[in-house]
Design goal:
The complex is a heterodimer of chains A (about 300) and B (about 450).
Chain A lengths: L1 H31 L6 H22 L4 H28 L8 H22 L4 E2 L7 E6 L4 E5 H23 L1 H11 L1 H6 L4 H27 L1 E2 L3 H16 L4 H21 L5 H15 L14
Antiparallel strand pairs in A: 1-4, 2-3
Helix pairs in contact in A: 1-5, 1-8, 1-9, 1-10, 2-3, 2-4, 2-8, 2-9, 3-8, 5-6, 5-8, 6-8, 9-10, 9-11, 10-11
Chain B lengths: L1 H6 L3 E2 L2 E2 H22 L2 E6 L2 E6 L1 H24 L4 H33 L8 H26 L7 H19 L3 H23 L4 H21 L1 H4 L5 E2 L22 H4 L7 H25 L3 H11 L1 H6 L4 H27 L1 E2 L6 H14 L4 H17 L4 H18 L24
Antiparallel strand pairs in B: 1-2, 3-4, 5-6
Classes of the chains: A mainly alpha (about 300), B mainly alpha (about 450).
């Protein structure tokens, strides 16, 4: 029982991170119908920017954790969203209206490029970061097992929930959100009605990248090690989450993220940890075969 | 109009320089945002944790380069007519068509060159080795070209079939002690079987979903190879894979009692080059078989159905083509050639481990197909020679190789989304009689 609760906590934490990345996938897919393969690498860049910001703040003497964390989050969101914007501008915008596979191939190229870019600039070895936040709450205690809810985990869930709420507000209430929903339904018509479609798409990438940056920092704080390759696996799992939840649907992305996090954690805890990635991929395959619209997605009709 | 615009302050040839400066400035500002973090600061490991190293001069260089680059690009855009783009497309199409035409003549010449390569005065062990490697990628590229170029299915897990081929060859050869010539078709069959097994459930999916699923399969196979220790010996890899023999004549210095080796049978002296040259011819033959097979099958109904499916799936379905089965054949045949290439890889290396079959490998093969021009056989050759041969010559730039790969993939897609030498001559064309159309 205690073991189960502990795994549940760990799974929810991991799921929150996946969910934040998955939003980037699902929004981009919803609005321009392409898989932004480089999104995982944006997440990785966010983690690196966060690491650098933490180190600089440490040298500057700002060590009060809440303040440092807020500064790091803001800086990383800003700088990472520049990457999101640039990727869209350089690799995807010129391909709008091209054949279907062109943006995907371009995205794969971008992903390879970004991985090696960071590898060359920051080195190939893993970067460890000293723990910023330590300690936690002991929830249950038996002789054999202690259930710990660490402060980092609380932070991750809180930040995720806060961001999701803000984000849902933006989509539901603001002009930007309205423009995004309009573009999602019909880009041509939205354009005719005076919405700047290119700008809306750019802003979608920017917000997606900002959320990925937050996920990157949470990942960094939670695991304490990053390297240039983390984006690949995390990206694929987050994409799986987006598909599982129903691609194009925001609550779906969050739900999918949670489920993937839980499945992965429980799989590692009760079966074999070596095959945890296989579990995630198998779910992706199974969902796509049996329920391509995901749990909360709308069916897509292909028209001539 | 032009004269009037020319009179305005700060303009040349009617180009508003101020606007150009503004545009370049914005680009430089974005570049500054990009560079300030991961370019300008490097995390370094120091005793007791992480330290920082500042490289502001790199940021300055990057910003300046982007400013100048953007300015030049914008200036060129302003001074050239907008018709240029269409014109350029047409030019590249013509070049693509030209290359195809030249390929008809150059193909045999290239073939003769490839056959003669080991006997050229300049050739040595190193060159033959690189040529073998390039040919392996050409073969993989041709195999993937069936799936991506002809059938239009984006397969991001092609390396899985390469791995299945390599491992099934190695396992059969080690455990059952069969010769290369029996193991090779078996390995190909195994890979094709895997292609069918994996393809059957997923080929109903639309293009980009299919790509992600194949990527997932590629990773699953790698993870299984890594963890199924009893069969694959996991990360340790399989070693001691039997070398191929020349129709039963092994290439070895020592002659076993009562049997011949290659050099004693032909009464020549033993050199280690013999095996290398043999391997070279082996992969050349395999690659040519792949090419010949592809060229012939394009003219069969199934080949035509692939190309038709790539162009319009709904139309095909309406015309009675079963999309899943047709795609499945392409998938299986592509997988089979991947398997052949894999068994060649295993026998050449004598050692295989899951490390050789990562996603990067799939991406490289895909890059070869994409850059060469999807569906173009000669394009694959050119791309392989440039990408594999070229980077092999600049070994010290290894770390920039994948960077260039990724960048090139983006650039080619933006510049020519169909691939550099893509020239889609429909393989089937209605005769002149059908051209008129109306009365």
């Amino acid at each position: 029982m205690e073991y189960f609760v502990q795994q549940l906590i760990n799974g929810v934490t991991l799921g929150a991170i996946y969910g934040l990345i998955a939003i980037g996938y699902t929004m981009v897919y919803g609005i321009i119908g392409m898989i932004n393969f480089a999104h995982g690498d944006i997440f990785m860049i966010g983690a690196f920017v966060g690491l650098i910001a933490f180190l600089i703040l440490g040298l500057a003497g700002i060590t009060w954790v809440p303040l440092a964390l807020i500064i790091v989050l803001i800086v990383a969101m800003l700088l990472t969203s520049v990457y999101g914007w640039t990727v869209e501008r350089l690799a995807y915008r010129p391909l709008r209206g091209s054949h279907r596979l062109a943006p995907l191939i371009s995205a794969i190229g971008m992903s390879i490029f970004l991985q090696n870019y960071v590898q060359i600039l920051q080195g190939a070895r893993v970067r460890p970061m000293p723990p910023v936040i330590q300690g936690g709450i002991t929830l249950m205690e038996t002789d054999a097992f202690v259930v710990q809810l660490s402060y980092v985990q609380i932070l991750i869930v809180l930040v995720t929930v806060a961001l999701m709420a803000t984000f849902a507000m933006i989509i539901a209430r603001t002009p930007l959100g309205r423009a995004q929903r309009a573009c999602e339904q019909d880009r041509t018509m939205a354009g005719l009605l005076g919405i700047n479609v290119d700008r809306t798409i750019s802003l979608t990438f920017v917000t997606g990248a900002a959320l990925a940056a937050v996920a990157g920092i949470l990942f960094l704080v939670y695991y304490g090690v990053i390297d240039f390759y983390i984006g690949f696996l995390a990206g694929i799992k987050a994409f799986t989450a987006a598909v599982l939840g129903g691609i194009g649907s925001l609550p779906g992305a969050m739900l999918g993220g949670l489920l993937i996090g839980l499945i992965e954690t429980f799989w590692s805890a009760y079966f074999t940890i070596e095959y945890k990635d296989v579990a995630a991929f198998s779910i992706l395959v199974l969902v796509l075969i049996f329920r391509p619209t995901g749990l909360l997605g709308r069916p897509e009709v292909e028209k001539v | 109009m032009a004269v009037e615009a020319g009179k305005r302050a700060g303009s040349i040839d009617g180009v508003d320089l101020q606007a150009l400066f503004k545009e370049a400035g914005l680009a430089a500002f974005v570049a500054f945002g990009l560079a300030i973090s991961v370019v300008g600061v490097r995390t370094v490991t120091i005793p007791g944790g992480l330290g920082l190293e500042y490289r502001w001069e790199w940021v300055v260089i990057a910003v300046a380069a982007v400013f100048i680059g953007r300015f030049v690009l914008a200036f060129r855009r302003e001074t050239r007519s907008p018709a240029r783009r269409a014109e350029r497309e047409a030019t590249m199409d013509r070049i693509g068509a030209g290359v195809q035409k030249v390929a008809r003549i150059a193909g045999p010449l290239l073939f003769i060159f490839a056959v003669a390569l080991p006997w050229m005065p300049f050739s040595n062990r190193y060159i033959v080795d690189i040529a073998t490697l390039v040919l392996t990628y050409i073969m993989l590229g041709w195999g993937l070209n069936i799936v991506v170029g002809l059938a239009g299915l984006l397969d991001l897990g092609y390396v899985a079939f390469y791995a299945v081929g390599a491992y099934s060859y190695a396992l059969i050869a080690i455990h059952f002690d069969l010769s290369f010539w029996i193991c090779l078709p078996l390995a190909g069959l195994f890979a094709a079987l895997f292609g069918v097994l994996l393809g059957f459930p997923v080929l109903r999916l639309r293009g980009d979903y299919l790509a992600i699923v194949t990527l997932g399969f590629g990773e699953i196979i790698r993870v299984v190879l890594l963890n199924w220790y009893e069969l694959t010996r996991g990360p340790d890899g399989l070693s001691g894979i039997p070398r191929p023999s020349f129709f039963g004549l092994p290439f070895s210095r020592r002659v076993q009692e009562g049997s011949d080796t290659f050099h004693t049978f032909f009464g020549i002296d033993y050199t280690s080059m013999q095996r290398i040259v043999f391997l070279y011819y082996l992969i050349l033959a395999l690659a040519l078989i792949t090419n010949f097979f592809t060229m012939r099958i394009r003219r069969l109904p199934v080949g035509r159905a692939w190309e038709a499916l790539r162009e319009d799936e709904i139309a095909c379905r309406s015309l009675g083509i079963n999309p899943t089965n047709t795609k499945l054949t392409a998938f299986a045949i592509g997988a089979m050639f991947g398997g052949f290439a894999g068994s060649f890889f295993a026998t050449r290396q004598g050692f295989i481990s899951p490390e050789s079959f990562t996603f990067v490998e799939s991406a490289v093969i895909l890059a070869i197909v994409v850059l060469g021009g999807m569906g173009s056989q000669i394009g694959v050759v050119i791309a392989s020679v440039l990408l594999i041969g070229g980077t092999e010559l600049f070994r010290e730039l290894e770390q920039f190789r994948m960077l260039a790969f990724g960048g090139a993939m983006v650039a080619i897609m933006v510049w020519r989304p169909r691939g550099l030498l893509a020239h889609r001559d429909p393989t089937l064309r209605l005769g002149a009689a059908a051209k008129g159309g109306g009365p």
